[in-house]
Design goal:
There is one protein chain. By secondary structure, the chain is mainly alpha-helical. The chain contains 8 helices and 2 strands; from the N terminus they run H-H-H-H-H-H-H-E-E-H. The longest helix has 23 residues. It is globular. The N and C termini lie far apart (33 Å). This is DinB-like domain-containing protein.
Length: 171
Amino acid sequence: MNERLVPSEGEYGEFYETYISKVRGRDLDALMLSQVEDLRQYFEGMKEEQAAQSYEEGKWSLKELIGHINDTEKVMLYRALCIARGEKQSLPSMDQEEYVAKGNFNDQPLALLLEDFELTRFVIRNFFRSLSPDALTYTGSANGYTTSVRALMNIIPGHFLHHMQILKERY
């Protein structure tokens, strides 16, 4: 593992430790690539009706969970882009419940949601590979916390692993 990719204490809000701890010591680029296949395999052969169901009343459906992952990854990428380019303004938080409610993910074909994940990951991987070593250490403010580009690079696959664990345990 390249040490320049490991965020230091103070480069992210404490609540992100759950995600960062899941990827510490791993090859982030290879992990992000393998996660595309992991998601495809999980949903292989699944019917639309099944993907629109949740494991419990009031919880997200499988499609909503994929939509949430997609939205979150785009927000994290946007934050990383802004910070890497020297943005001085504090970047806003996201209300995940509101995003899912307005996403209408259950009305979208499962194949479209999976393709969105794959294409978003392609852009994310290319973006992070394009950055200089210095840019990875840049910090800014997002969601009211100091955040570094490399912390966001770790949060993205860690957040995915968190939700894959939920998929495997509850759905």
